[in-house]
Amino acid sequence: MSAPTIYDIAARAGVGIATVSRVINGSRRVSDHTRKAVQKAMADLGFRPNHAARRLAAGVPNRPRVVALMPFFTTAFYFTVCKALSETLSAADMDLVLVDVRDQQEADRHLDRLIAERSSEGVVLCSMDISDERRSQFETLNLPIVALDCNTKTIPHVAVDNVEGGRMLSRHLSECGSTHQALIIGTRGAEVFRDRERGFREVCPAGSRVFETETVDIERGEEVLEQLLAEFPEVDGIACAGDTLAVGVLQGLRKRGRRVPEDVQVLGFDDQPMMDVLGISTVHQPMSEFGRWAAESIIELIKDPNATPRPSALLDLTLIPRQTTALPGKVPGR
Amino acid sequence: MSAPTIYDIAARAGVGIATVSRVINGSRRVSDHTRKAVQKAMADLGFRPNHAARRLAAGVPNRPRVVALMPFFTTAFYFTVCKALSETLSAADMDLVLVDVRDQQEADRHLDRLIAERSSEGVVLCSMDISDERRSQFETLNLPIVALDCNTKTIPHVAVDNVEGGRMLSRHLSECGSTHQALIIGTRGAEVFRDRERGFREVCPAGSRVFETETVDIERGEEVLEQLLAEFPEVDGIACAGDTLAVGVLQGLRKRGRRVPEDVQVLGFDDQPMMDVLGISTVHQPMSEFGRWAAESIIELIKDPNATPRPSALLDLTLIPRQTTALPGKVPGR
DNA sequence: CTGTTAGCGCATTCAT
DNA sequence: ATGAATGCGCTAACAG
Questions:
Q1: Nearest to A79 among B79, B121, B302 (CB)
Q2: pLDDT interval class at B334 (50, 70, 90)
Q3: Are the beta carbons of A54 and B97 separated by less than 8 Å?
């Protein structure tokens, strides 16, 4: 059986629908007695007013909603993205609906739902791509969609060149005198990591090694470090394809009495909040710009469904040297 | 004039509304010619399909939305809260819409809107209270509302005892041997800071000082430190009513060559992410529990509007000693 | 105080 | 391929 409506309530309470509507809306023009009766009927039937109907009948304006699918909890990277998204969207009087997505499967589930429900005016994909087939679903529905931190061919996006990012990692390490380099990446299931690995391999010294880890967090950083040190004891430069890993590596190194950057240099990726305070050298990603670009694009698309989407943007990555790497001459005795 | 409907489009394009509906939904049973005409009409009039009407007509189920009002960007405290909120809500198949709120005025604006639009099934207030009058608006609308990190009398909430938190700050500093204590708080406009100040003053040594800052960030921490050092040079223990301030203070202290904790001890509040890595002693707030409790409560209330809200919860604060404070005997020479 | 009625904007048969 | 009619669940006059 489907959800009860005010007609069901009215019938059960022996009143008219207007009365039901009145108690729902807290009108005081209802006798205490009938109010109780209606409330009881609602409780009995587990009544919940239909949102869409209320809005439609009340004639309230449509506040556009954009839903953002994001692997929200993996790293603080998304905190900054989120911030920019929210600010830009709210300035345009739109709502931000956050959907936490852990894997492709979950993403697809939500995408299906979004298409079926048509419950949003736009969607922002964070660090994930979609199939061409799905892309065309959005196309025919005229439902705007953009991506951030993802180099997809099918939808408007803002991204960085992660292959170049990988190169930057190794180059900086080399400039700092490292000759035995290691790279730690997250799952190769993610394109960003594959790209960074590729770039790294292109320019790294012979004999360099790459390590993969499924999850990206501080603990895993320490664990991978242990393995890395065992298999590759001569390492003198560790690049991490994520700041969180770098933090773990740094901690592990210090526990083992290895000096940073004298014995081993450490380099992160993202430039998440607090990395400056921690003094971790890293490759800065334009997180706020990601969020802002995506929000602005989707806003334009929503406001004018026939507008041509702004061309995809490729933003710059910047290497930020701090205390965990040392350019020649910067550290005494090196 | 109000927003154009499919009737307007139909009239302008010289077709029936069914046809308009077809092109909106990407049906292929429309001739190319009429499709173009309709699309042009839509573009000309800036047509945007009405959400509520689509859902109502399509009979899609009501996916409950809960909107969270939060001072989202002030600190990473809210990132963790957000995480828990989102996880719990999504497990219950509800959407989380995030609304960034900077001040009371903005909060009221959104609250008014929420009430007028009835656009959500529940609302979560983060670190903010509402007037009794407004509370009764929610009451009569039967719109569930809960609060987190706020000790309000009028709505179900989860919170901590910030007065006790303030005491913990001073007590720990005292235990660590500090006799000239300072407290840095955010704006007294926020109750949490007033409470922490009150607790601190209750137990702090005579001659202790309290400093207020409007905004809470790292830079401000450094700035306030400067002022503090100038006015209160004999200080040997600085408590901050927020980790972010503590980070700034710590940086400032190190720049000035003051040793921590030997010369001056530093204590934060919140236990935000990365504080463990930074080794900052702090008072741990149960951020995830805040989020989970609020989400679970609101879910219950939404699922059964006639349920009695779960009783408000007062969670424990925990002092976490790390490297910026030192219990007697923990630091050589102290 | 309460019931009747007429839309809200759109998707959807059912005709044509 | 396209149009007319019906109803989604509810609110808001308008009567009584």
A1: B79
A2: very low
A3: no
Contact A213, A220 (CB under 8 A): yes
Between A and B, how many residue pairs show a Cβ–Cβ distance under 8 A?
165
Name the residue facing B247 among A87, A251, A277 (closest C-beta).
A277
| Residue A329 banded pLDDT, cuts 50, 70, 90 | low
Q: Which of B42, B86, B141 sits opposite A100 (nearest CB)?
A: B86
Rounded Cα distance, A96 and B70, in Å: 13
The helices-and-strands tally (H runs, E runs) of chain B is 13, 12
Q: What is the mean pLDDT of residues B186-190?
A: 92
* Chain A residues 29-48 within 7 Å (CB) of strand D: 47
**Nearest chain B Cα distance for residue A291, angstroms:** 14
CA distances from A220 to A223, A228, A240, A242, A246 (A): 5, 12, 12, 12, 10
Please answer whether residues B148 and B293 qualify as being in contact, where contact means their C-beta atoms are separated by less than 8 angstroms: yes
Q: Tell me the mean pLDDT in the region A165-176.
A: 98
State which of A307-311, B39-43, B150-154, B170-174 shows the largest mean pLDDT: B170-174
Arithmetic mean of pLDDT over chain A: 91
Tens digits of per-residue pLDDT, A55-82? Answer: 888 887 767 889 999 987 778 899 999 9
Strand intervals (E) in chain B: 65-70, 95-100, 122-126, 145-148, 157-160, 181-185, 209-212, 237-240, 265-270, 282-284, 313-315, 318-320
| Protein residue closest to D7, using CA and C1' | B57
Q: How far is CA B221 from CA B94, B170, B229, B241, in A?
A: 38, 19, 12, 11
CA B255 to chain centre: 32
Q: Tell me the chain B residues in contact with residue A48 when contact means C-beta distances shorter than 8 Å.
A: 62, 121, 302, 305
Cβ-based contacts with strand C at under 7 Å: A 14-19, 22, 28-31, 33-35, 53, 56-57, 59, 118; B 2-3, 5-7, 17-18, 21-22, 24-25, 47-50, 53-54, 56-58
pTM: 0.87
Q: In this structure, what token pair is assigned to residue A205?
A: 């010294």
Check whether B41 has a pLDDT greater than 80: yes
pLDDT digits (tens, 9 = 90+) for B276-293: 999 999 999 999 999 999
What pLDDT was estimated at residue B329?
A: 59
**Cβ separation A247–B277 shorter than 8 A:** yes
Q: Residue written as tokens 């506040």? A: A63
Residues 6+ apart with CB under 8 A from A148: A81, A124, A125, A126, A127, A157, A158, A159, A290, A291, A293, A294
- State the DSSP string of B274-325: THHHHT--EEEP-HHHHHHHHHHHHHHHHH-TTSPPPPPEEEPPEEE--TTS
Nearest nucleotide by C1' position to the B19 CA atom = D2
Proximity of residue A1 CB to strand D below 7 A: no
